[in-house]
Amino acid sequence: MSQSDNSFEPNVIDDEMLQKAVEEQWPEDIRKLAKAEGINFKDVMELQLSFRNILQIDNLWQFENLTKLQLDNNIIEKIEALESLVHLVWLDLSFNNIEVIEGLDTLVKLQDLSLYNNRISKIEHMDTLQELQIFSIGKNNLTTLENVVYLRKFKNLHTLNLTGNPFCNEEQYMLFVVAHLPGLVYLDFKLVSDTTREVAISNYHYLTDLLEHEEAQALAQLEEKQAQQKELEYHKTAFVEYLNGSFLFDSLYAEDTEAAKLAYLPGVDDLLQAYRKDFVSVCENLFNYCLKEHEKREAEVSDFYEGLREVLTANQEEGRRIILDFENQNRTRLDEIHHASSHDTAESMRAEYNEDILQLSETLMTLEMQMVDQLEELIKEFERNIAVITSTFIENVKGMMTQCRDLENRHHEKLLEISISALEKSLKNELDEELPDDVREFLVDKNTIVNMVNKSHNIHLLKISMRECDILLNMYHWEASVKEKALQNEIDRNRNRIKEIFQYIDDLQEQLDNTQIPDPTE
Amino acid sequence: MEVLEEKEEEEQKEEELKALEISSELHDTKTKLSVEQICFSSDVPDFDWNSIDTSQLPDSYKMNSPREKKLLRIADHYHQQYTHLCPERKPLFLHPVNECGVEKFVSTTVRPTLLPYTELYHWDGCASFVSDYLTMEPLKCPLTPPSSLYSPTTILKYQRGNCFDFSVLLCSMLIGAGYDAYCVNGYATHNICSLDESLEECPLLRKPQEVPKEDVKKSNKYRVKSLPDMHSKFELQQEAKKKAETEATEKKERGERDMEAEEPTCDHLCGLRVHAWVLVLSGKREVPETFFIDPFTGNSYSTMDEQFLGIESVWNHKNYWVNMQDCRNGCKDLVFDLSDAVHWEIMLSETDKPLQLLLGAEKKNELFDRNVDDMEEEEEEEEEEISFAMPPSWVAPIQISPKEFETRCSQGRKVILYKKAKLEKWAPYFNGNGLVKRLTIYADSNWTEAVEVKEWFKNREDMLDMREVNKQTQLTTEYFSPGHLFGLKVHAYKSMNPQTERVMEFYTETRVDGLQKLAENASEMKEYFMGRDDFKYFQHTEFRTKRKKVTLAGVGTDVNSRPIVQIKECFHRNLQKPADEDIAERVFLIEEEMIQLTYHLKDKYITASKKDFFKPTESYRKQSEIMTPEMCITYQAGSSEQHTKLVHLYKLLQKLTEEEKQLKQQVWRSQAEMNAKKDEFPGQNEQDLDYLAPFLIQMGSPEKMTRRQALRLRDNCLSDFKNRLVSKANIIQARFEKEVEELQKKNQLFQENQNQLSEKEEADLLADYSETMFRIHILALRLDREKQTAPQKYLALEEKLRKDPRLAEHLGHA
Questions:
Q1: Rounded to whole angstroms, how far apart are CA atoms A153 and B468?
Q2: Ranges of Basic and acidic residues compositional bias (chain B) (predicted)?
């Protein structure tokens, strides 16, 4: 089947075509070699599928590492099936029949995109292509000049081709584009001159200024949000999210309907204010303490890893030295064995070398065993320190939480007092203030009111305990994970090293075994 | 009064007696002294000051003005009182005679002058200029001040003088530059007085004090315990002991030897040798501390320096002070507050006090004080002094022409002997090869066995800055300033021949290839790089030395290209690549047709990945298989997947082969560059072209010439030169005529078409016309000059020929 026969019949990309295309782009000698070995599409970095009458893109998912894809001069109508080519840097879809820009969202590394000579009428759906530098969308069906403003998103865009679109005939086309895309160096194959830029800016600054202002505002908002998010994240790692301020206090009362009713009693308001103030200040203390502790923990961990790194580097150098020494000593040994005067000497030399290899293996293993011992100690020390940090932290947090509880208890007692006195007054009809009906309802007997106050108190205590529990759990969790990580790292390291040593020794022995020695007859 | 005077007379007699005694003592030492004098004055031909021409000097040199006469009277009076008060002290140095035989007061000899050279605005510039410019003469008698003191202008004119002349000149320049400077008459050690620096370390050899680097290292609490040390500590101790002992004995021996060699000779005239130097007080020109300048060397000394043994008196252009302090401990304990009447006896009390006290608020007080002083002094009936201010200097303005300033040393050369070292200085441009300084270091104290020669250059095209030649190893090291054609910084070599041992360092920033250092010898070349994009930092090329192969003559290869045995390259880690794809070391074993690749270590790994390629042999290539697994031995650290695909290996091999080719070429290129360098190295091109060579060749380059040949040679040479001059003149003449002709043509054209010309054309024509006129004028000038200078040039050549060593014996007396 030759290409010319194909030209009238629409095609779909299939395995056969791909195989052929991949093969074609190599020179003769490599092609032979590759064929013998079998081609893995994963290894292909570039692929050219031009002039093949392709109607539909398909079957490209295997080319995971593709960076350059040429699909120009086909009859493609829809951009599709490119989602998995996330490493793509260059994509050429020129001279096709595409009508809508779509399906490019995952190609975040894309720098060079050509959609020249298609039927596109709107620039859209390209928000994620932040790396875009060169964009060609000439000879399309773009009619509204304002659509170009969309390209302001791409901060790296320096080359743009828009020729042959309907809006190019508009009088202000050039100036409009230049004014709205200040980073542009080349437009429609030509260098944007400084004079053009000046004129464009002076003509359109009323529009662009507005745009810039809006963009700046959006950016500022985004940044602010990010900063907030970041701070919250930081607080979370210190286990104190929302602990500064009155968030916890407010949460005590959030689900407490009884307290809301009780608040109407005379004197409760003042009490609440005072309580709130004390409580918040304790919370602040706790918050600051936790942050400080967090810093301390981080410092401890980084100290540990710093120390670990030093030890490991020293160990690596030592191991490296041993191996280099060995290699330098035995550089010519295989040759010597190969060229030995007789079979017997060769045999003995081989045995000797084998012995040396085993010796090396022994040395490396000993080094590794020492290392394991040393690191075990190191990790134990680290664990001890972490345990100390954890226990002091927990103690202190518990202490502060107890302060909270004390505050709550005191508040509870006072509230009880007020409530009872209010009840008594109410019973004697001495209450001067007008109270809402539902409040009046439980000012009937002592049990009701005490129950109510107790209920509110219990809710509060529960909340406080929950928060405490939260912090403590987090802390335990942290301790466990840090220890676990240190241990796991060490185990992995040890395994890898042992594996490496075995592999290296095997390799040496294999080389030795492969060395030909003179025949015994000689 | 009379009694007093009698007493004075007696004292004078006594003093005379004492002086006699001293002089008798002197006689013994004089013989020795004269020997010493010969020592340092041997290369300075004796100069007779009596022969100088004083007739041209202005009148102020030859007579005293009334004020000066009065001053002298005051000085005499002062001196009388002084001798009366301090009978045991030596007479003061107040009014020696000048070059015209007229007595002049020393303060009036100081002529403050600011010279128009930026270098001379600072004290160190002035001091080094004075020390370089003047040639030192010893005092006639080393124990008394000289009887005469010449004007600085005369000193400058003849470029020689004693320590007093030096001091007065330097002091004049310093005061002119705004320093609070004074001439000092005092006593110093023999070395200072006789400008004998032969016991001193050369200042150029003094090593800068090393600042110990502080190791700021935070100790981490996480440390592993070191493994138990299995070595015997006792043995180590014993060894250390032994070493210490041997070292100690060696040191002792060496020390003894040194002692023998360098025992300083004791000077029994210590403390009596008269010297003059300059004192600079703190205060003016942001001088933080009072210090001395020795005018002979131009070096500054602390006032505590032990080489200055005492001060008699100091003076500047305004006043004269006598030191009343005890100088038994040298100048260490002296107080330099000249306004302090207890320590310093002032001569003219009316003149300004030294600036130190003249600051701000004290002025009023001072005025008051002065009035009080005046009152007291009036009582003592010394009105004369009160109203008297120092008369202006009688010396004509000091002038130094730019040429003199540039030439510096007298005859453009100055030699200083230091301890085991000799320093020679030349003025810039004095030597054709730009040599300005040469320091020779000797192994012995007699300056015979040179060990090392250092030469400094200036204003050279190849930016050569310093050359160091080690006479023992024959190693030459040249240092270049930035700007050399190849970015050369340091070049160390033993001989200029190609492929011998040499080390070159470069200014890396200026080189495209980032070459930093290149070390070469007969069999290898090491190159060190910095800041390259491909992360290469080292390249080692081994060559086959030619001795092994008896090469057939004319085998086509370049003579300089040696066969390469192997090239090894080392690379830094490129963090953008994974470690086991980033090559750390690449070895091309060219003779063995092998390429070895070693990759960087992966994190925490101790074995590096490796690939060894065996290049396919010719027979192999013809087979259908272009790449087989046997051609590459791979070791991939930490991955069990043994085989990468052959396609990749093949591609890699292709790439490597290509790079090997390029590398070879690059090595040859850099060899060529080295050879090019050799050609333009300074050592060779110091000789001029021989102007006689063409004529000598015509005569068959005879070893020795007969008189007839010499004459013929001379005639040939002269006639050739004459022809050249004539033809040059003819060329100029021809051009001149051509221009004139053209001008006439233009003129004609202009005349004819004057009416039809537009305004612009007319302007063009006129501009053209004036330009032609200008050219004609220049040509005429040249022609004229040529005619004038030609005979002179001819005569100069004739003279040169006569003095040419090859022809001298025949032509010298012709």
A1: 64
A2: 236-258
B621 CB near a chain A CB, below 8 Å? no
Q: What is the pLDDT of residues A432-486, one digit of tens each?
A: 666 777 777 777 778 888 888 888 888 888 888 988 898 899 999 999 999 999 9
A470 part of a folded domain: yes
Residues A196 and A276 in one domain: no
Contact assessment for residue B133 and residue B110, using Cβ atoms and an 8 Å cutoff: no
Is the four-CA dihedral B68, B69, B70, B71 of positive or negative sign?
positive
For B377-447, strand residue ranges (E) read 413-418, 421-426, 435-442
Contacts of A510 (CB under 8 A, 6+ apart): none
Structural domains of chain A, count? 2
Rounded Cα gap, residues B538 and B568, in angstroms = 8
Lookup: tokens for A511 = 């080389």
Q: Is residue B605 within 8 angstroms of chain A, CB to CB?
A: yes
Nearest to B220 among A310, A322, A374 (CB): A310
> Where in the sequence is the domain holding A204, given as residue range(s)?
11-224
Alpha helices in A341-445 (DSSP H): 343-427, 437-441
User: Which ranges constitute the DSSP H helices of B357-456?
Assistant: 362-379, 383-386, 402-407
Are the CB atoms for B292 and B277 separated by under 8 Å?
A: yes
Q: Is A311 inside a domain boundary?
A: no
**E strands in B148-298:** 160-161, 180-188, 274-281, 291-294
Report if residue A164 sits inside a domain. yes
- Quick one: A173 and A210 in the same domain? yes
Q: Does A323 touch chain B (CB under 8 A)?
A: yes
Q: What is the DSSP letter of B218?
A: P
pLDDT at A488 over 90: yes
Alpha-carbon distance A360 to A354, whole Å? 10
User: Which strand (E) or helix (H) includes residue B79?
Assistant: helix B66-85
Asked whether the beta carbons of B165 and B189 are under 8 A apart, the reply is no
Distance between CA atoms of A162 and A140, rounded to whole angstroms?
8
Query: φ, ψ for residue B762 (rounded to 5)?
Result: -65, -45
**Residue among B377, B378, B161, B363 at smallest CA distance from B276:** B161
* Distance, CA of A259 to CA of A457 (rounded, Å): 9
**Cβ-based neighbours of B788, under 8 Å, separated by 6 or more:** none
Decide if B618 contacts B593 (C-beta within 8 A).
no
Token duo for residue A127: 């928000």
Chain A contact present for B650, CB below 8 A: yes
Question: What is the Cα–Cα distance from A155 to A503, expressed in whole angstroms?
Answer: 49
Q: Which chain A residue lies closest to B653 (C-alpha atoms)?
A: A30
Instruction: Check whether residue A501 and residue A410 sit in a common domain.
Output: yes
pLDDT one-digit tens code per residue, A153-187: 899 999 999 999 998 888 888 888 998 888 899 99
- Count the helix, strand and coil residues of chain A and give each as a percent rounded to the nearest 5: 65, 5, 30
Residues A283 and A413 placed together within one structural domain of the fold:
yes
Q: Which of A494, A507, A512 is the mutation pick for testing B, counting most B CBs within 10 A?
A: A507
Residues A199 and A148 in one domain: yes
Residues A151 and A83 in one domain: yes
The answer to whether the beta carbons of residues A140 and A119 sit under 8 Å apart is yes
Say if A476 falls within a structural domain: yes
Instruction: Give CA–CA dist B106/A286, Å, rounded.
Output: 87
Mutate to test the interface with B, among A40, A325, A496, A498 (most CBs of B within 10 A): A496
What's the CATH code of the domain at A27? 3.80.10.10
- A215/A254 same-domain check: no
Taking the C-alpha atoms of residue A248 and residue A229, their distance in angstroms, rounded to an integer, is 19
**Residue of chain A minimizing CA distance to B598:** A324
Query: Is B222–A511 a contact, with Cβ atoms under 8 angstroms apart?
Result: no
pLDDT of B225:
65
Whole-number Å distance between alpha carbons of B638 and B580: 10
Q: What is the mean pLDDT of chain B?
A: 76
Residues A487 and A389 placed together within one structural domain of the fold: yes
